[in-house]
């Protein structure tokens, strides 16, 4: 029973708490279903209303945008229309600037219309066409007006750059008295301003500028005789040209500048002094004068042309005139100033002025160029016009300038002439008179002039500014380097074919080499100060010139030797001379060789220095004698008649050979050299010994040999002498005995 009570008691306490938990659950359930209802309500009713409102709002917004667009488009169309109407009115009244401005307004309206995406109107194409037509129409009217303002009367010929055509060119500028301006039509300014508004001014001005350059400015620079003259009538200003005899080949820069200033002043007064409003993006301040625009277009070309065709010619060619050049620089400055005042020019010191101020450098360049051109002309002139030079020949020179206080202590009195045989060395030691002397010979007159050119240029250098001095010194060096390149190539064929020219060229090279030894020396005081290491010398060029002369002459010697051997090759080896035909052939060969040598002796006469002449002729005669000796010594059988005939051929050579030595034109003075032939002809004695053998008996030959100590032994080897004995004598005991003694 106790247990039951306890259970009931617990149960009774339990029930109420369970009750309250159940109540709570049912309350939560109720709330939850309320929320569901509310949520369903929101989803169904409110959301729908909101969606509708947003949709309506968007639709209204799009509607508004469409209306605004349409409105702005209609507005632009209306602006376009108004602009075209006002343009037409302005055009009728010849108010060109207003007309042009209206067209530009129409153009910007049209641009706006075309930029609308997704709004392509058929009408836009028509409007575009209308605008183009009206623009062309206005340009046509403006063109007509422009043509009245500036009228070109040009020669019909295509040939634009002649003096003739320049004289037939005229430019008429319309002038309008200010009070009648309205009646006479629009002023210059409005026509030009309208062009500017339409962006066509540049094209118009460019054409005008080109005509101005071609028919007026350039001819005035090119033709000194061309003079501008002007004529003013009531409503027109005329610019014409006439030709007057010029005083010089080139007009001075001063004259040219004056003529051009005159032209530009006229243009400035009647046509170009017009301030223009530029379209905004071009200019900061928007205002610019026509002169400025034209100047921009033509100045560069004009200034180049002035430099090339006027200033270049005005650069002096000798340093004494450099002082006076200051006038040219001044007038160039004034010319620029005048052009600035008229607003043709904006910037300071243009290329034109820089060129004029840089006269020293141009002077040096021009001088160097003139020197090289003159030198090249001398090098390509004929070699065979010659002058005779002797040991006391001098290079004619103007008085050397006194170098002032530059180096008084060392200055020597400079002589009027620089002589071949007179060189004072540093410490005044006198060398033998002939140490530096040149033998008498002939050189090309062009080479003598070339040397004078070199001396004069160095003289000029000593009187010039440092920079110019250096340039001139190197251009003189260039002359000589050029000589080595030009002469051998340019005269190549003649130097190969003509022995006389080869000889003259040889002398020319030796003459130049001779002068190069001392050339820097005369000018050393001035040049050494400027050129580093005192390198004012030409000595390094000497070996090259000697080699050049030698090579050419030796090549000619080889040709002559070849011809001698060629002629002797037809002598049938000098064998079987008892045969008439063979003898004739040999005799003819000998005659031809002598004839060749005689001819050479004549063409080299009075040309080559005597010692060179004798060596050269000696060498060639030696070639002939050596060949004859070799042929005869090689014969295996020589009959008595053969020997006689060979002897007579040799006698011809010995008698007539020396006569080819005629170094001097006066015959009596040549005897001395003919007697000295054995000195110049190495094999002369050999040849004489051979002749003795051809006439001697066995005993005489043995005597001439004299145990290897006689004159025969000096010229021939034992083997050669034995071979000759076997050929000349029959095989006998006496021959065997003689042969035994030759050893």
TrEMBL record:
It is found in: Chromosome, Centromere, Kinetochore; Cytoplasm, Cytoskeleton, Spindle; Endoplasmic reticulum membrane. The keyword ATP-binding does not apply. GO terms for cellular component: endoplasmic reticulum membrane; nucleus; RZZ complex; spindle. Residues 2-84 form the Centromere/kinetochore protein zw10 N-terminal domain. Residues 588-742 form the ZW10 C-terminal helical domain. One of its GO terms (biological process) is cell division. The keyword Chaperone does not apply. Keywords: Acetylation, Cell cycle, Cell division, Centromere, Chromosome, Coiled coil, Cytoplasm, Cytoskeleton, Endoplasmic reticulum, ER-Golgi transport, Kinetochore, Membrane, Mitosis, Phosphoprotein, Protein transport, Transport. It holds the Pfam family ZW10_C. It comes from the Eukaryota. Residues 142-379 form the Centromere/kinetochore protein zw10 middle domain. Residues 436-566 form the Centromere/kinetochore protein zw10 C-terminal domain. It is a peripheral membrane protein. Interacts with NBAS and KNTC1/ROD; the interactions are mutually exclusive and indicative for its association in two different vesicle tethering complexes. Component of the RZZ complex composed of KNTC1/ROD, ZW10 and ZWILCH. Component of the NRZ complex composed of NBAS, ZW10 and RINT1/TIP20L; NRZ associates with SNAREs STX18, USE1L, BNIP1/SEC20L and SEC22B (the assembly has been described as syntaxin 18 complex). Interacts directly with RINT1/TIP20L bound to BNIP1/SEC20L. Interacts with C19orf25 and ZWINT. Interacts with ZFYVE1. This is Centromere/kinetochore protein zw10 homolog. The lineage of its organism: Eukaryota, Metazoa, Chordata, Craniata, Vertebrata. The gene is Zw10.
